[in-house]
Design a protein that fits this description.
Layout (H helix, E strand, L loop, with lengths): L6 H26 L1
C-alpha cells in the first residue's frame, strides 16, 4: 500500500493522528465531568 512515503503522506498521517488524539482528549474531558 505504501511504497514510497512522501512528505505529503507523512503530513496527512500526522494530521489524522492529531485529530484522533484531540477528539479522544475532548471525549475524556466530557466524560470526566
Amino acid at each position: 500500500m505504501i511504497s514510497m512515503p512522501g512528505i505529503s503522506e507523512i503530513i496527512v498521517v500526522i494530521a489524522v493522528l492529531a485529530v484522533i488524539i484531540g477528539i479522544g482528549a475532548l471525549l475524556v474531558r466530557a466524560f470526566r465531568k
